[in-house]
Amino acid sequence: MPQMAPISWLTLFILFSMILLIFNFVNYFIFLPNTPELTQKTITQTPFNWKW
User: Which of 4, 15, 18, 24 could form a disulfide with 8 if both were Cys (CB 3.0 to 4.6 A apart)?
Assistant: First the structure.
């Protein structure tokens, strides 16, 4: 059984690392989250009555 040279292991590592990075980048940027439609909501504030 022939053994692989270390340079081949290095090129395989670089190749699979680049494939992993490209796969992750593509999956990250292809994801489109559902953005809720912007509606006008009024914010009601209740006044605080401190008893001290």
Answer: 4
